[in-house]
Amino acid sequence: MRVERLNKDKVKIFMSYEDLTERGVAKDDIWSDAPEVHELLNDMMDEVYDELGFEIYGSVAIEVYALPTQGVIVIITRGDDVSKEQHAVYQVDVRLGNHSYITFAFENFDHLVNAAKDLNRFVEEKGAVYSYNGQYLLLLLEEDFKVDQYESITAILSEYGSISSLTKDFLAEYAKPIIQENAIKTIKEYF
Prior knowledge:
Belongs to the MecA family. This protein is an alpha+beta fold and 191 residues long. The protein has two domains: 2-96, no CATH class; 101-190, Alpha-Beta Plaits, CATH 3.30.70.1950. It has helices spanning 17-22, 35-52, 109-118, 150-160, 168-174, 183-190; strands at residues 2-7, 10-16, 59-67, 71-78, 91-96, 101-106, 128-132, 135-141, 162-163, 176-179. The strands form two sheets. Strands 1-2-4-3-5 form a five-stranded mixed sheet. Strands 9-6-8-7-10 form a five-stranded antiparallel sheet, sandwiched between helices. Helix 3 runs antiparallel to helix 4. The protein is globular, with a radius of gyration of 18 Å.
């Protein structure tokens, strides 16, 4: 399990499917309301506090994103409308990350170029590239690739970058567009 603080009220947790199995949670059970899942969430929140000092209080939103070949990403956001004195039981609002797109973040442009070249056999020309917070983000819509190629595409992208929880709408609103159409084709032609 890897824990990363995204901002003062948000943390990201990555758990591989092996981590889930070791904790007694099957891959398909993560979406259920089983006692094991509640226990896993409590364990995660305890570990987040131990590692980052991120205290859970008040209303909490939990977003779960499944990565078919690697594991799950859990984003925990605490509500800022609740005071720290209220250490009562927290509410959990679970939103599943079943989006019709993939967003991957790359630390530098060269990593993105290499990923685009390796994607050539699956995605020939589609995609969009954005810049946000010093990273390059590749957005691929579901119609840009065949659904049965999802695992292969995410495996290639994972070699060069990491899955991002930034949504398509967030990128459109806050990120700087670099290549808005046919990003894979453009990158292959010019780099």
